[in-house]
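Posting this for the archive.
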Amino acid sequence: MLHGTVLFSVFSTVFYIDSAYESFLISGLSIKTLVWSYLSSFFVSVSVIAEIDAYGRYQNYKQIKDLMHHYGFDRRLLEPFMNSRCQRKAIIVAANDLKLRAEVKNYIRISGYKWYHILPDAFIKNPMVILTKIFWKSILFTKYYRFKSFYW
């Protein structure tokens, strides 16, 4: 799904950039050119942010998988990874790999999260947090984590 989104974004971006350039050559700087330019920059940013976010969630997956493999299911291990839906999905996938899916899904349900809780908790508490460097660093620029228990 993620790579499909990226491919769609890349093809759309190429189309929009070509359309913006063609519009600029024909009519100079016009509203049509600005619209095409905006659409191309939007699709470029969506594809880049999607890939960076996927990389960050993969690092979360590796870390929580190692922790659950070593310590088993413990709600205290899951707390730092419960901030967004993507992180909760990473926990579920790691738990599924370790046959702990039922316990983790039950804990997420008991914690009050439903299918429609998509936005990060920090954003719900304070929508202006998206303007801070710490938020973007914690969401998009997750540090590389090397598996300690698994080598695949």
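The radius of gyration is 20 Å. Residues 2-140 form one domain.
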